[in-house]
């Protein structure tokens, strides 16, 4: 189970990730980290902090069944999944959540080589300067 004050506090001032039509108040100053039910939720236990989404006061109340007609099971699942996905993306953009990125790949599935620039066919090779970080000392500058 993950608990992180920094992760939950990052909800403050963020856009509501539930954005339930007709409910969302658009006031990001009321946004808080809303926990959803997960495998850790139980008597005396709060859900893991990885199972949160950023919700404005109105959406949070509706999501928890405290405002008007409760959401259907399908609606609740839709908003929960979308809210968690948006919240994870936001935490990544905020620099709070770190995910190692894979090397970029071409459409062919081959990894893009990093280092030396790829030369286009039919065009003369660009002249490299000696202070170029990709300069290969074993070859002539213009070969």
What is this structure, in a nutshell?
The protein has about 140 residues and is mostly helical. It has helices at about 5-10, 55-65, 75-95, and strands at about 30-35, 50-55. The protein has a domain at about 5-95: prophage-derive protein ybcO (Erythroid Transcription Factor GATA-1, Chain A).
Write out key terms for the chains shown.
Erythroid Transcription Factor GATA-1, Chain A, mainly alpha, YbcO, 143 residues, two-stranded antiparallel ribbon
Shape: globular
Number of helices: 3
Radius of gyration: 24 Å
Which bin fits the share of residues in helices?
10-25%
CATH evolutionary superfamily of the domain at 5-94:
prophage-derive protein ybcO
| Helix-strand category | mainly alpha
Q: N-to-C SSE series? A: HEEHH
Biggest beta sheet summary: 2 strands, antiparallel
- Which spans have pLDDT < 50 for at least 5 consecutive residues? 132-143
> What's the CATH topology name of the domain at 5-94?
Erythroid Transcription Factor GATA-1, Chain A
Q: Let me know the number of strands.
A: 2
How far apart are the first and last residues' alpha carbons, in Å? 58 Å
Mean pLDDT: 80
Strand order of the largest sheet: 1-2
Query: What is the level-2 CATH architecture name of the domain at 5-94?
Result: 2-Layer Sandwich
Beta-strand content estimate: 5-15%
Q: What is the CATH C-level name of the domain at 5-94?
A: Alpha Beta
